[in-house]
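hey so u asked for the seq, here:
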Amino acid sequence: MRSYYIAGNWKMHKTVAESVALATELKDKLASCGEKVLIAPAFTALSAVAVVVKGTNIMLGAQNMGPEEQGAHTGEVSVLMLKDLGVRAVILGHSERRHSYFETDELVNRKLLLALKHGIEPILCVGETLEEREGNRLEEVVGTQVRKGLTGVAAVELAKVTIAYEPVWAIGTGKTATPEDADAVHAFIRKEVKALYGEAAAKSLCIQYGGSVKADNAAQLMAKPNIDGALVGGASLKAETFVPIARFR
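ran it, structure tokens below
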């Protein structure tokens, strides 16, 4: 039986003290959880949260990173800094980075390759806007994001990559793609990966769903054959809402 990958993206929320408190609560309540669990606090809290989760079954993740190892890049955080703190995974290409900060597929790809180079597991986010979906451009948009995001990734490295499908229209809106709709896009992503890397790689690829995931829809989503986990936003900010998602079965 496969395990699932449940990741909490805390976005721009919580002070250091609040982050430590939540991480401590999650450490206790998810101690026996059988799924792969990750939390991604704000950069300012990474160091303190790293101390809390060290040696536990909760992975420490970052919400983004710069495309260079070091240098004159004011305001950026490098992969070397993240690795130094014990960060094991990084969320890349989140729709908020793409649409609010205009990150391109090429930039996301540079970050992804850099993360892999330094042994940090990337979560590559892909997804369409409502306008793109209604314009019958879903496969064009998502397919391009997948192909360009994985450019230069060797077959042996693909096992370290997770793809998160997050329909932009469902993020923070309370709207959720039906489990059937979400699974259909996950299946399409597998087809794209199969064309690039072969059937075995496509079958073993972990694809999360993100977009208003809650305790009351997590089990239905995870029951679908192509959905391997969740990238959770708002519901990851409280133990009472995140723990039931991680313990959906």
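Strands lie at 5-9, 36-40, 58-62, 89-92, 121-126, 162-165, 206-210, 229-232. Residues 109 and 151 are 7 Å apart (CA to CA).
lmk if thats what u needed
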